[in-house]
Amino acid sequence: MSNDERRQAVKQIAVTMGDPAGIGPELCLRLLYDTKLTELVRPIVFGDAGVLRRVARQCGLPEPTIVVDPRQWQQASCKLRQPAVLDLQVIEADAVRPGHVDAATGRASYCYIEAAIAAALAGTVDAVATGPIHKEALHAAGIPYPGHTEIFAAQTGAARSCMMLTSREITCSLVTTHIGYRDVPGQLSVARILEVIELTAEAMRRIRGELPRLIVCGLNPHAGEHGLFGDGEEERLIAPAVDAARRQGIDVRGPLPPDTAFLLQHRQAADAFVCMYHDQGLIPLKALAFDTAVNVTLGLPIVRTSVDHGTALDIAWSGRAAASSLVQAVLLAARLATA
Amino acid sequence: MSNDERRQAVKQIAVTMGDPAGIGPELCLRLLYDTKLTELVRPIVFGDAGVLRRVARQCGLPEPTIVVDPRQWQQASCKLRQPAVLDLQVIEADAVRPGHVDAATGRASYCYIEAAIAAALAGTVDAVATGPIHKEALHAAGIPYPGHTEIFAAQTGAARSCMMLTSREITCSLVTTHIGYRDVPGQLSVARILEVIELTAEAMRRIRGELPRLIVCGLNPHAGEHGLFGDGEEERLIAPAVDAARRQGIDVRGPLPPDTAFLLQHRQAADAFVCMYHDQGLIPLKALAFDTAVNVTLGLPIVRTSVDHGTALDIAWSGRAAASSLVQAVLLAARLATA
To answer: How would you list the strands of the sheet with B272-275, edge to edge?
Structure first.
């Protein structure tokens, strides 16, 4: 393979800058100069160059060198040969108050996502990896989505999708995501649980390269202990979905009692856990694998991964943010784009 | 101290045998011959000697040597100087089908508990450590309690109590315990959350010997993200309870987002977590500290600890059960009885 061919084979990944007031800009700067990473993939930061320059000065990091505007991007996107910043010019750098929740930065974070989705759908990038956004800022800007997963599902017209978090230690996908605790039982159905089992099996097959083994968690303590607790969600909803998935040839078992589902022996015997609600999956995942897990949206026509942490407003623009999760997200995006 | 005084200073701990069809009998046999343990505490197994003998033969373990019947116990309980079996003669050994859920063994497991509670209230034992029972067997026997915690609360007339699981890695106490997922929000109140914070602070002060630092979890994903998810349980119920506890001088913070509450940095900075529901606490506890955690019922007039695992029917009477959690439970019971 010639150098030129190798550069073309390298996947081009849109990396959204996240909320300008959070740690996203710092993470993107670290990414652009991570030569171990950029030998393997080509990150294109979708954000504001002015903000990145201000953060670089504040954190003592090098400023970005290759910056293109949207018109140049239209003309040259396929010919870019190096990591770059696509300067979307949404927000003035001086208008950003680091560490503050603000409708203007929430709006900006949304614009970066919209542009990245459009680029992925147009094929000018191979995948999207997203930096952290702030849900309250998004809400303050009047954006009617609770998070990335829902934005990507809506804007790509995905008929079905779900959120999965994956790490070396543990992988969890979620039947319900960003809804209140008490709204979960009403959102569970055999069809939805089966959908998430199918999406998870397909994604893990692409990641692992072989038929994965899945575990499905119950909803109630002790998985309802055969009807003693709860409203029989295990028998009515979860077990039928597991049975239907098995009939399709998926290697899956459950519903398991949630508190013992994540024991070491099960983690070693399973490639992924299908969880009924946000914290059922994210509590063990973050306890066991914080900072190395990657968030993937399954079921989309494009590949989308994300960091597994928030905007960390308390250390925004301080130079203390670790890019490990974003690096993993970019690498997994490239892998999934290839598979 | 003379040998005789030392023997008297050793705490006498009632150890209930648990469900005869589970791993409880094997664990009790291992306990009786654990000389490292019996140098420090004196376990008295409340169970059936016939079952223990049959299990000993089946597992290739030594049979119990010192066996007293209830009449001898009444006369001599305070003068026992060695680990022993109190033979309550509830069930015929030959009637037990190992690994099966059965009303008769459920009933027996309940009788052992009743006798142990009576002994603790009478002061003939210093504390109770309970072996694993099977909730379905208990239910089949018509016992109207979902678990140990509720039996102990009712039979000791405790005005308030809660379940806490403690290990070297992590300690969690539970505001709600063995109820269905959807019943949790209706059981939360400022008074109940405050009660569990107080009970946890008091117990951890006794265990640690100093003022403990507590973390209280939210109920909803991201602790409701300031009202975006859920019905404001964090603002209406949890935050006021935390504030009230702080006014009493308790070192407590929260509500924290449940998925990040259990990160290593928080585990290192806190002595215990107050959790809103069973799996919120038991998922991270079992993922991080299975087989070494001990279950403690707080708020009782007597000391009660327990294993953190179930009856493990699949390996009952096989000789493969590890007694580590029961050993820890007995040691903690002795420590709490001294404090």
So the answer is: B67-68, B84-87, B41-47, B11-16, B127-130, B304-307, B294-298, B162-166, B171-174, B272-275, B213-217, B251-256
- Identify the helix (H) or strand (E) that includes residue B67: strand B67-68
- Spatial distance between the Cα atoms of A111 and A46, rounded to a whole number of angstroms: 9
B261: nearest CA partner in chain A: A283
* Both structure tokens of B138: 């208990």
d(CA B194, CA B175) in angstroms, rounded, equals 9
Which parts of B173-277 fold into alpha helices (H)? 184-187, 190-208, 233, 239-247, 258-261, 264-269
**A266 φ, ψ (degrees, to nearest 5):** -75, -40
* pLDDT tens per residue across span B278-328: 999 999 999 998 778 899 999 999 999 999 889 999 999 999 999 999 999
Q: What is the DSSP string of B128-185?
A: EEE----HHHHHHTT---SSHHHHHHHHTT-SS-EEEEE-SS-EEEESS-SS-GGGHH
Best probe of the A interface among B278, B279, B280, B290, by most A CBs < 10 A, is: B279
CA distance B82 to chain A (A): 36
- Residue B293 domain boundaries: 160-297
Between CA A316 and CA A319, with CA A317 as vertex, the angle to 5 degrees is 105
Co-location of B2 and B112 in the same domain: yes
Report d(CA A69, CA A86) in Å as an integer: 6
Same domain, A277 and A247: yes
Q: Are residues A40 and A54 in the same domain?
A: yes
Instruction: Tell me the H-state helices in chain B.
Output: 3-9, 24-32, 35-38, 49-59, 70-76, 103-122, 135-140, 148-155, 184-187, 190-208, 233, 239-247, 258-261, 264-269, 278-289, 324-338
Same-domain check for residues B17 and B56: yes
Token pair 């070297």 is at which residue? B168
CA distances from B328 to A73, A330, B291 (A): 64, 45, 9
- Whole-angstrom distance, CA of residue B245 vs CA of residue A301: 50
Cα dihedral sign for B302, B307, B313, B317?
negative
Q: How far is A279 from chain B (nearest CA, A)?
A: 6
Do B273 and B324 share a domain, yes or no?
no
pTM of the entire structure? Answer: 0.87
Q: Say whether residue B188 is in contact with chain A using an 8 A CB cutoff.
A: no
Please state the ipTM of this predicted complex: 0.85
> In this structure, what CATH number is given to the domain that contains residue B206?
3.40.718.10
Nearest Cα neighbor of A129 from A52, A36, A198, A37 is A37
Structure tokens at A52: 């990145």
Both tokens of B62, joined, read: 């030594």
Dihedral sign computed on CA atoms, order B20, B321, B327, B38? positive
CA diameter of chain B: 66
Residues A277 and A204 in one domain: yes
> How many domains, chain A?
2
Are residue A71 and residue A90 in the same domain, yes or no? Answer: yes
Residues 155-184 of B with CB under 8 A from A: 177-184
Q: How far, in Å, CA of B284 to CA of B266, rounded?
A: 13
Indicate the pairing of strand B162-166 with strand B294-298: antiparallel
* Interface membership of A10 toward B (CB under 8 Å): no
Tell me which residues of chain B, numbers 196 to 215, contact chain A at a CB-CB cutoff of 8 Å.
none
Q: Choose among B181, B260, B283: nearest Cβ to A259.
A: B283
User: Do residues A147 and A199 share a domain?
Assistant: no
A205-258: pLDDT as tens digits: 988 888 999 999 999 999 998 888 899 999 999 999 999 999 999 999 999 999
Task: Find, among A259, A308, A323, the residue nearest to A147 by Cα.
Answer: A308
